[in-house]
Design goal:
DNA polymerase, domain 1, mainly alpha, 14 helices, three-stranded antiparallel β-sheet, hpI Integrase, Chain A
């Protein structure tokens, strides 16, 4: 008896995992493909093509008023579906493109950073300090493994970032002692997990098959582990993952309120502030580009615009001598 072919979305998940994309990317792509199918009244994508993709992307821009980055994400998901699962060429697409924003990122002054950090404590405060001190994205900070922190060289290796690449950034001297004390607690927690028959951690890129016992090794453990164990959504194994982003975000939101800072602030604001403060201190744009992991210096140039806005670049005529 022939086995039934796998459902389309399961085929998509298989193709994504074959390419070692993150679980978040998997969720995002599957979500967009599902929305695409529902938009076209549940037609199977193999019976559709470029025209239907154009119609969906245009709908997102015109009716949904989505941002350019959101529309690009939807397009990437559908491109992946047709190229890697259905093996169909979409041809040249001419969808209405969402307008790109000229948004300048929110940047904190150094005194505002200090004020907010003073209202944060514990692990969440340590996470935010690492983000600001090293210019990491929240996902990068929470994904740090023990082996990624080099205390002797005073550096952090941010791995598996956008584009599955790695980069080296600095480790602030003021964070060395707090991080070492924190890791002592994490090591005791890991030993407790091992004693109870657990202690494994998710390993990227099929390393678990290549090194069968590496998932329990200390160097592969997360620097910021969650307080409880959970079931891995892909393998079903019971593991201790890293802290959830929402916990850090909630703690920061409360700290911003307590500090009385009247700006719209998120975890990424500290990465923006890291870059801007380095430029203020005289570091060149190429150095900042490398520390942030930007492929194109144009992406980093936005921080020069932040520096030049307001009274920093042009003197107001109201400032009468």
């Amino acid at each position: 008896m022939e086995s039934r072919p796998r459902k389309l979305l399961d085929q998509v998940r298989d193709a994504i995992r074959l390419k070692h994309y993150s679980y978040r990317t998997e969720q995002s792509y599957v979500g967009w493909i599902r929305r695409y199918i529902l938009f076209h009244n549940k037609q199977h994508p193999k019976d559709m093509g470029g025209a239907e993709v154009e119609a969906f992307l245009t709908h997102l821009a015109v009716e949904g008023h989505v941002s350019a980055s959101t529309q690009n994400q939807a397009f990437s998901a559908l491109l992946f579906l047709y190229r890697n699962v259905l093996n169909q060429d979409l041809g040249v697409l001419d969808a209405v493109r969402a307008k790109r924003s000229n948004y300048l990122p929110t940047v904190l002054t150094k005194s505002e950073v200090r004020s907010i950090l003073q209202n944060l404590s514990g692990v969440h405060g340590l996470v935010i300090k690492v983000l600001y001190g090293s210019g990491l994205r929240l996902s990068e900070g929470l994904s740090l493994r023990v082996k990624d922190i080099d205390f002797a060289q005073r550096q952090i290796v941010a791995r598996d970032t956008k584009g599955n690449e790695s980069r080296v950034t600095m480790l602030a001297d003021s964070l060395i002692e707090p991080l070492q004390e924190h890791l002592c607690k994490v090591k005791r927690l890991h030993q407790l997990d091992l004693d109870q028959g657990y202690g494994s951690v998710y390993l990227p890129f099929a390393l678990e098959r290549k090194y069968p016992h590496a998932d329990r090794a200390w160097i592969w453990q997360f620097v910021f582990p969650s307080t409880g164990r959970s079931r891995d959504p892909r393998s079903g194994a019971i593991r201790r993952h890293h802290l959830h982003e929402s916990g850090v975000q909630k703690a920061l939101k409360q700290a911003v309120r307590d500090a009385g800072t009247a700006k719209r602030i998120g975890c990424h604001t500290f990465r923006h502030s890291f870059a801007t403060h380095l430029l203020e201190d005289g570091y060149d744009i190429r150095t900042v580009q490398e520390l942030l992991g930007h492929k194109d210096v144009k992406t980093t140039m936005i921080y020069t615009h932040v520096l030049n806005r307001g009274g920093r670049g042009v003197r107001s005529p109201l400032n009468i001598d």
